[in-house]
Amino acid sequence: MSRRKSVPSSSKAGADRKVLFDQLQQIAKGLGDTFAPFCEVVLHDLTHPKNAILAIHNNLSGRKVGQPATELGLARIADPDYAQVIANYANSFSDGRQAKSTSIGIKDADGDYVAALCLNVDLTLFQGLQSAIGQFIKVDAQNSPREMLSPVGADAIREHIDRFAARRATTPRALTTEDRRILLRELREAGCMQVRRSSEIIAAHLGVSRATVYADAR
After folding, report:
1. Do 107 and 113 meet the contact criterion of CB atoms below 8 Å apart?
2. pTM, 2 dp
3. Is the peptide bond between 37 and the residue preceding it cis, with omega within 30 degrees of 0?
4. Angle between the 177-189 and 154-167 helix axes, to the nearest 10 degrees?
5. Disulfide-capable partner of 41 in 32, 48, 133, 213 (CB 3.0 to 4.6 Å)?
């Protein structure tokens, strides 16, 4: 006796979609809580394009729940082959503030777009911070007096340690005790231990005490 393949009922499809949107609501909230207050997170229901905005967290755009889908949402509704993830594209809020946006299209089991999760980052604060940091780290190389805060040879010691750690695919502070002992033998053979305050320089770069350096150097 042949068996007919069961077809999901409309009620089951509706229940599945409700579960999907419930989970997307949680994802949107989690992202909003994580990236507050710099990132607006918007969940769109593309099955109802005329009032697509289902949830909005950290409202930076001034939009409201129930407002229609954007041009990007309409493009996805019209074309299931439209890009599912569009990341870090230039955008702007209605008041002219620059933004960086990422839009993620969500498909159902049939391959049709039913939702979109969008992140809009307000770049205004970060641009201000970038300008302030740039000003803070600016130095006047032409009028600077000749002065070295590090002892002569300190850079050579640090470079030797960095190269040693790189050969072991690790960082100076992650070297094992045995690795440090081998390193200190190399530094001694290279004459680095003759540099004034060498133990202090080595200890600082390795993230250990000078006592540990003395013990490993035995």
Report:
1. yes
2. 0.62
3. yes
4. 130
5. 32
